[in-house]
Amino acid sequence: MMLPPDDLEREPYDVPRGACPACGSGDVTHLVIGLPSGPEAMEGDPDWVHWVGCVHPGFDRECGSCGATWSSRPVSV
Ligand SMILES: [Zn+2]
């Protein structure tokens, strides 16, 4: 491992942005469950990544073009 022992940096957000299943637009916002380590960490993320804490809105992808929302993972209810 090449990580420095006392100055850990969060790994960059590298999830593929994907495309809207409704309109095919690439203007997709990711709603990420969980919190980054701090404001500095958030600034390093693409502006289409939104941290939503532990409150899951029921979807984690939102289309900026048509407003569609969906979940990136299959929902088993
Ligand atoms: Zn769309």
Taking pLDDT < 50 over at least 5 consecutive residues as the criterion, the unreliable ranges are none
Query: Number of helical runs?
Result: 1
- Calculate the mean pLDDT score and round it: 79
Q: How much of the sequence is in beta strands? A: 15-25%
Spatial order of strands in the largest sheet: 2-1-3-4
Helix content: under 10%
| Gap from first CA to last CA | 40 Å
Report what the structure shows:
The protein is built from one helix and four strands. The termini are far apart. A four-stranded mixed beta sheet has the order 2-1-3-4, with no helix packed on it. It has one helix spanning 39-43; strands at 28-32, 49-51, 61-63, 69-70. It has a domain at 29-70. By secondary structure, the chain is mainly beta. The protein is globular. The structure holds zinc ion. Zinc ion binds at residues 20, 22-23, 25, 63, 65-66, 68.
Summarize the structure.
With 77 residues, the protein is mainly β. 6% of the residues lie in helices and 17% in strands.
Show the helix and strand layout.
Blueprint: E1 28-32, H1 39-43, E2 49-51, E3 61-63, E4 69-70
Parallel strand pairs: 1-2
Antiparallel strand pairs: 1-3, 3-4
The structure holds zinc ion.
Search tags:
single chain, 77 residues, mainly beta, four-stranded mixed β-sheet, 1 helix, 4 strands, 6% helix, binds zinc ion
